[in-house]
Amino acid sequence: MKHVLIVGAGAVGLSCARAALLRGHRVTVLEQGAIPNTRSASFDQHRLIRYQYGRSVGYTQMVSDAFGAWDGLWQDLGEQHHHATGTLGISLEEGDYISQSRVTLAQMGIDHQWMDQTAIQRLCPQLQLPAHAQGLYTTTGGVLFADRIVLGLAAWCREYGAALHANTAVLSVDIERGRVHVATGVLDADQIIIAAGAWLPGLLPAYRDLVTARQAVCYVEAPPQHLAHWANGPCITDIGPGDNYALMPVQGTGLKFGSGIHRRPGSPSEGFGSEPDEGYAVIAHFAPYLRNAADYRPQRMQVGYYVRDGVDAFRVEPQGKAIVITNCGGGMFKFSALMGERVLACVDHEITPEHLQHWAAGHLSTTPLPP
Ligand SMILES: Cc1cc2nc3c(=O)[nH]c(=O)nc-3n(C[C@H](O)[C@H](O)[C@H](O)COP(=O)(O)OP(=O)(O)OC[C@H]3O[C@@H](n4cnc5c(N)ncnc54)[C@H](O)[C@@H]3O)c2cc1C
Predict the structure, then answer these.
(1) Residue 275: predicted pLDDT
(2) Residue 366: what pLDDT?
(3) Domain span at residue 110?
(4) Domain containing residue 200: CATH number
């Protein structure tokens, strides 16, 4: 049995904690805020899980594996925090990301449908698309109820013996010795896992130049005639040049719009408030593709921060007695349960640090990983 100490109680840190407990390790989690921390990137009503990963066989395979990892969590929690709305990626140009995703899914034998504009409009009457639009539809994928997941994970980890310390900021880490410093003293561990999200640059000097981004998404009130279309339809991705996406209002959650264009460099020290008319700016990215676009109203903004260096590849870096998980960007939530499993497989020497690193960067497509 090892003492595994985890910095950060977001989806990644808590998933590592669960995986470590399942393997019989002693687990300590240190979190600077409340557990869960409503400021963390992991805390929101929902996050999207979808198959569309362009040409990347590695990440597409990871999505398949992620579904299996989530099923394991639902079994442990005794409830499923996922609603399989299906997902629909919109292709507006030949060779674009969604067209590439179609080729990858076909190569990998993953079930999907390629739709023309008429079929898309039948499935999603709230959309208004040009005649050349095409759609990549999968019945798998949809909404992960993020806040319920982190709450459930934290409760499960506590019940199974993890020591979860809220309001306990890690001030520095001695990676070689396996030691962390907190305000009240030091803690030693056999293995440290650092899942500090957008706060990592302030914690580890070697990572101080990482680029962090502010992403604000908007909860939206749809016009009454389209409420049922949103509630019963698939989650929508990659609609328009901003890779815009919409998460469906299911099981008590709201309709949410996000846009890649509405992201800018920023760090948590800037705060979590929204800017005037920010919601209208997010809706404007969708407006060309919505029927009755003028009747959509912003309800509230949700602001989050993450590390994103422009290369959409996760960085999982074993070094000394620590494993640092970073560059999670706007796509790690869907993989967090799986990430916990793989990181702990490395801790227990079932896979090498090199394999873990390459797999996380999307370079390996085989599963299970070779030893
Ligand atoms: C607006 C938005 C939309 C997104 N949409 C999606 C999506 O649809 N699908 C998807 O898969 N992903 C999505 N993501 C990305 C995903 O949510 C994140 O990549 C993921 O939640 C990161 O989890 P994490 O645990 O690494 O980081 P976080 O959830 O940020 O957790 C890090 C935790 O570490 C704590 N911490 C930091 N420093 C210290 C310290 N020194 N001591 C103690 N504790 C510390 C923080 O307080 C925080 O609680 C989105 C992200 C945002 C912001």
Answers:
(1) 87
(2) 46
(3) 84-142+212-305
(4) 3.50.50.60
Q: Quick one: 187 and 104 in the same domain?
A: no
CB 56 within 8 A of CB 102: no
Give the residues across from 143 on adjacent strands: 48, 83
Cβ of 149 less than 6 Å from ligand 1: no
Report the separation in Å between the CA atom of 197 and the middle of ligand 1, taken as the mean of its atom positions: 5
In a domain, 67, yes or no: no
What pLDDT score was predicted for residue 147?
Answer: 98
Mutate to test the pocket of ligand 1, among 31, 50, 343 (most ligand atoms within 8 A of CB): 31
Decide if 371 is inside a domain.
no
Q: What is the reported pLDDT for 276? A: 87
Instruction: Mark out the alpha helices in the chain (DSSP H runs).
Output: 11-22, 57-77, 97-108, 117-123, 146-159, 200-203, 227-232, 278-286, 336-347, 353-360
234 ligand 1 Cβ < 6 A: no
Q: Give the per-residue pLDDT at 241.
A: 86
Tell me, yes or no, whether 59 lies in a domain.
no
> Which residues of the chain carry a pLDDT beneath 70?
365-371
Q: What is the model's pLDDT at position 359?
A: 96
